[in-house]
Model the fold of this input.
Amino acid sequence: MTRPQEGYTRVESPSEIESLLEALSEPGGASLQLESPDGKPLPVLVAEQQPGGHLLLDISAIREVAGELGRGAAFRLLGQARGKMLRTPPLTMSECNEAGGRMLCTSPYPLALEVLQRRESFRAKLRLGMEVGAIVRGDDKEASVQGDLKDLSLEGCQLELPLGAASRLASPLPLEIELCFPNGSRLAIRASPRHHVVDTERQAVRAGFQFVAPNGEQERQLWFFVREIEREAARQSNEADVSLLPSLLFQAEPAGSPPVGRRNVQAYATPMARRLARVAGYLDAQLLELQQQRSLDAVQLSRHADRLLALHEEDREGLLFATRCMRREPALVRHGLAVAVHLLDLAAVGGMPRDVRKAMVACAMVHDLGKALLSKRLLEATRLDADQRAALHAHVALLRPRLEQCHWLARGVVEAVVERVNERLDGSGYPHGLAGERLHELTRLAMVVDAVEAMRRDRPDRPAWRVADVYRHLLSHPGQFDQRWVKRYIQHFGLLPIGSLVRFEGGELGWVQGLDERGLPARVQLTAEAVPPGESLGAVLSGDRLATLGPPVAEVPVST
Done:
C-alpha cells in the first residue's frame, strides 16, 4: 500500500473536495494508479461526481485493468488543481459496465483528499546509488550530451553534465531532455535552462531546467517518476521501512543497453578503468554530500567497498593500472582510490580476513575526503604558516563525525586508516602527534601506502616525484616510516610499479601494465606523450615484441 508522504495535507471540507475534484473532470486532468508496487498512472476521465455519493469514471482508454478493478483492486486518483498536486485515499470500484462503447465504473465518493504543494515540497532528490541518466539535445547539429539526474519535480529538474556542456546552457532556448531510468522507462520533454554552476575540480556543471508546457501525458509520467523517486529514496534511507518494496524504475534490465550518464560517454584507457569509474562516481557524489553537511552513506560505502574487492579478485594488475587512468576525477577521489587499491593489494599477501580488508578499503577510499570541507584557497596554498597548517590538519576531525552512521566499520580500522594515517613514528605527524608503540600495525602499513601515493602526484608546492625518489625518501626516514613496511612495499610493487610511465632504450614511452617474477615490465602499453593514460594509448606489447624496445632506462614522472 502506498503510504502518505511527508508534505501532504488532508482536506476534509466537502466544498473544497468538490472544487478540487472538479479540476480532475477536465480532459487529461486525472490519472488512475493501482495500489501495487508496479502501479503506474493511467489516463482516466472523471465523467461525473455526486458529492457524498459516488464518482463515475470513464476507463475506456485503460480497459486492460477493468478486470483487476472489478475484482476489488484498490486505486487512487491523481491530478493537479490550483498549483497543487492532489490524490484520493485508496478507492475501489463498486460497479463497471459497458455503455455506448464506453467502459464506465463507479466508486464511492472520497471523504477526504491529500494535497501537496507543487514546488519545493514536491522536489524529489535522488540518493546516492539511485542512478538516472539524462540525454540533452538541442535543435542544432551539435551532438547530444549525457548527464545524471539529481532531482525532479513537476516543474523542472536538476542535471549534472560534463563541463563541456556549459556553453549550451548560455542560451535560454529550450532543449530536449530525455530521462532514462534503469528499467528502460524514458521520458522526453522540452525544458529551458534557468541556472548553472560550474565545478572545474570535478569537471562538471550543475544545471537547473524548467519544463516547457508539458502535456497531460508528460505530467502523468512526471507525477509517477517523482513519486517513485521519493519512495525509493525513502526505502534506501537509513531509516527506511523494510516493508517498502523496491521501485521497479530502479531495477536494471538484465540485458539492457549501456546505461546513460555523465561518465558513460567518457573514454577510458581500459575496460577495468571504466568499471573503476563507477566507484569514482560514488566518491565524487559523496564529496558533494559532505559539502552539504551530510554524513557518509553507510550502505553505498559498503557496496562500493565490495565492488572494489571483487574487481581486485578478478584482475589485480588491471585494477592497479586503472587507478592511474582516473584523470577526469577530483584529486581527492584519485588519491583515495589509489591508496585503497594499493593498500588492499599489499595487505592481501598476508591473508587478512575479508571483512577486515573490506573495512580497510572503505576507510582508505574516504580517508582524505574531509579536505573537501576546507577552503579551496587553503588546499591550493604553496606555503603554509602555523595557523594554516593547523587548519589543514583539521580535515581528519571534520571527517570523523561523518562516519558515525557507518556502524559496520570496525572502530579499530577507522582509527588506523582514517584517524592515524598521517601520524609518524617519531611523533611528528598529525592530528595527535602519536608515536612508536601507539601506532597500530595497520596504521604503519597505511602511512607508507598513503605517503607513496601522495608523493607520486603533483602538489601545489611541488611536482610529482619519481618512484625511485619516493623510495629513497622513505628509506632515509626510518624515524618516521616503519622500514619493514617500506621494504615490503618496494619488494611487492617493484622499482617500476604497475602504472609507471617508462622510457625505453629505443626512445619509446610505455605504461607498465604487468611485471614478471623479477619485478621488470612484462607488459606495457605504448603512448606518444607523457600525460595520464587516456583513450589515445597505443599497442600493448609483451614477450618478443616488448624486447624489441630494449631495456627500460628511466621512469618519467606523471601525476595521475
Notes: Confidence is low (pLDDT under 50) at residues 1-5. The CA atoms of residues 299 and 406 lie 8 Å apart. The chain has four domains: 9-118, 123-250, 271-493, 501-555.
